[in-house]
Amino acid sequence: MEPQFTPLLGDPGIEIYDPIEKVRFELQTPRPVEPTPADADSFYYPIDSAVTIETDEIVSPVLASVTVYSGDGEFVRNFTPNTDTETRYDKGRWYLQINGVSIVVYLSVSSPVTIRTEQKSISFSFAETSHVRIGARSYHESPQGTITVSGSVQDTMRALSTFGSALKMMTPDRAHPTLRGHPPLIELGDEFHVPDSISRPDTDVRLELPLTHRKVFPAASLAYYLGAEVVPTSGTPKLVAGNFEYSLLSDCTYEETIHRILKQILFLDCIINTDGIIQSTLHERNQVESLLDFEFAEVYESSHTEQLETYLSVPYDTISEYVPTWPLTTDLTPFSEHAAVLPFLAYDLSLIRSAPVRSVEQTVSQPQMLDDFYRTGFSQQERTADTDIFRGTGSQDNTEKIVHTDPVETTEHAWIGDGFPLGANKLTVDALKRRFEYAAPNKSNINIRVVCNENNMSGEIVEKMYEFHDLIDCEVKIYHNRTVSEIRDILETPADLFHYIGHVDKDGFLCEDGSLDASTLDNVAIKAFFLNACSSYEQGMSLIEKGSIGGVVTLADVPNTTATRVGQTFAGLLNAGFSLRTALSIARRETVSGYRYITLGNGSSSLVQPDGGVSLLSSIKTTGENSYNVEIMTYPNTLCRLGSTYAVNVLGTSSRTLVSNGASFENISLEKLKSYLNIESEPIIIDGQILWQTTEYFE
Question: What distance in Å separates the CA atoms of residue 17 and residue 188, rounded to the nearest whole number?
Fold first, then answer.
């Protein structure tokens, strides 16, 4: 199933459609064109399919950076919209890669070419009507196969040793996400088996670990990224690279050392690969180059084992403040059946911790976490306002199912095990496997179905909650006081987001004529859900088991003010392309009661693709008349994973920065700020208030 090319309907140009990821990307032309098949192998870099068109101009409707290569594949330069307005290349053969869009796209032309930055697009003009070849490659990464393990620790080690087979290169370029495939899946069976299509790379790197799942599970992401063999030891656990050895019992704990090594190696790969196949100027390189006592080009050309020795000779404290904020920590109980989730965690480069189940015999209305929220600066007025009217209270007493996990330093937190984690995403293998079945479309127009079965919630309040939908191009249908059959129909009819406001008890969703237990549904066609009802997590799990990719539930009673703030912000962020887990982590900040919400299912899923490929949130603070400070934070997603880079499109930055790192700008004038806001997509936080449109805010 290769990318397909067809003429655009209406406007001149072509549409590139990826049938695997189910995403589209348009290229516009001044006149209608008719694509004809071209040889995909004629491109220097790997692509899946190609066509030729005749035109004197092509326009990318996305303000994306462009990497320019010569005809023999040599890197020439990066064209970035934030600093470059126009550049011209004389006659010759050129490869032009359009970065940060939903499909990997290359243009190949033997003609002088001029690249220009327009207001919200990039144009490619040719000296005359030319034959332009367009190549496309899917971002889709399917596992090469499935490894069967018996449940023994030895089998888990052997399975982890194959994870590196999914890496397309063992140079520092593997930090680029498109060069990291998905590790093989793992399933339990009678005996160990590896398909012939899967073979472990010969890296001369191994991890010597104690023979327990508690010690082996946390090493999955590191084993994958290093292409390491995992073997048992009765001695000191260590990383061995050629003749170099590094103890996993350093100044930190065993797990902390593994996490630190992973972060250090990926970060330094990102720095070193700026001298690799995709050369670029990286903000983080400028920050740390003077701190590192080695030549980057020499390290890039050295062997894999030599690189690891060089990297680990650098004290972590030297670079720690420049390492991107890691997106995910996953706690899992170290049972053999949980080996099946390791390929997904490794692919996401999650920091993994082995953890016991610890149920807490107390209500969750005032846990220590709430005190932590208070200490972050909420006023007494805000605390009082957030405890006014609670979403309907049920009679369930499920406190023994609530799991309190240890704090994390990452943006997001996940849990694999029994119970429901306070403040984390409960993952299941079945939900994670659905990532291969569903891909977010690239147009920001989700449809939302809101059901309000709460008599204390007036129609006006619900309408106000979603009055912002006109600003973010989404379709909202609101239903009041629905019956069992009506809610069943809503759940079994395809839609992007189901928002339920009402009551849940031991029998299910309370309806006008009874209760609907989601476990009785034949299937669920709702992609994601947001259940604003007391202790709605069990009904949410049933929705996951019946077909949803993921959603948000509550662990306790929820005030109406919380429901309004969190629900509105969550829906708006989903529509902007944020993942379920990231959207909730941001929405929870709107209220001190946000800790009562958790994500179920595949929290990394998105309903739509963000404009420009990266999930971005800008925070603007007024510092004086005609003076503003701007903080920009990017969040990894399925298109822009760890190792991706992003160029801020205005504000005078001159280089790219790593996704999941922030960028700060002080004393920005109103003129520059307006220019930035005209390019970047919403949402924007201005003086603490999240806005969905900013065009009239500064008028």
Answer: 36
Cα 325 from Cα 409, distance rounded (Å): 8
Q: Which amino acid is at 513?
A: D
Residue 492: per-residue pLDDT: 95
The residues pairing with 106 across neighbouring beta strands, listed in sequence order, are 97, 135
Q: 349 burial class (0-12, 13-18, 19+ CB within 10 angstroms)?
A: buried
Burial 414-449 (b: 16+ CB within 10 A, else e): bbbbebbbbbbbbbbbebbebbeeebbbbebebebb
Is the predicted pLDDT of residue 561 greater than 60, yes or no?
A: yes
Q: What's residue 439's pLDDT?
A: 57
Between β-strands 113-117 and 86-89, what pairing exists: parallel, antiparallel or unpaired? antiparallel
Report the 10 Å Cβ neighbour count for 208.
19
Enumerate long-range contacts of 243-247, CB under 8 Å, 24 or more apart: 243/305, 244/305, 244/308, 244/309, 244/312, 246/308, 246/312
Distance from the first to the final alpha carbon of the chain: 49
Torsions phi, psi for 59 (to 5 deg): -120, 130
pLDDT of 390-411, one tens digit each? 444 444 445 558 888 899 999 9
Q: What is the enclosing helix (H) or strand (E) of 307? A: helix 304-312
User: The whole model's pTM is what?
Assistant: 0.83
pLDDT in tens, 329-376: 999 999 999 999 999 999 999 999 998 755 443 344 444 444 433 323
Beta partners for residue 634, in sequence order: 616
Q: How far apart are CA 500 and CA 449, in angstroms?
A: 8
Distance CA 369, CA 363 (A): 12
Which residue carries 């009819």 as its tokens? 493
* Structure token digits, residue 351: 């920091």
Find all residues with CB under 8 Å of 176, minimum gap 6, and list them: 273, 278, 643, 644
pLDDT, residue 92, reads 87
Closest of 378, 530, 539 to residue 465, by C-alpha: 530
d(CA 589, CA 20) in angstroms, rounded, equals: 35
- Range list for CATH 3.40.50.1460 in the chain: 367-399+424-601
Please return the burial class of 371, using the count of CB atoms within 10 Å of its CB with bins 0-12, 13-18 and 19+.
exposed
- Does 73 score more than 70 pLDDT? yes
Bridge pairing between strands 508-511 and 504-505: antiparallel
DSSP state for residue 17 in the 8-state scheme: E
| Residue matched to tokens 């959207």 | 583
Q: Specify the pairing of strand 205-209 against strand 238-241.
A: antiparallel
Please count the other Cβ atoms lying within 10 Å of the Cβ belonging to residue 12.
13
Q: Say how far apart CA 674 and CA 668 lie, in whole Å.
A: 10
Contact indicator for 674, 628 with CB cutoff of 8 Å: no
213 vs 462, more confident: 213
Please state, rounded to an integer, the average pLDDT across all residues of the chain. 85
Mean pLDDT for the stretch of residues 253-278:
93
Encoded tokens for 28? 């516009």
CA distances from 97 to 26, 55, 78, 115, 450 (A): 14, 18, 9, 12, 42
Place of tokens 């496997």: 433
- Are 530 and 571 in contact, with CB atoms under 8 Å apart? yes
Structural tokens at position 358? 């610890």
| Bond from prior residue into 683 cis (ω within 30 degrees of 0) | yes
pLDDT at position 607 is: 80
Asked whether the beta carbons of 249 and 371 are under 8 A apart, the reply is no
Domain spanning 367-399+424-601: which CATH class is it, in words?
alpha beta
Inter-residue contact 238 to 208 (CB < 8 Å): yes
596 phi, psi to nearest 5 deg: -75, -10
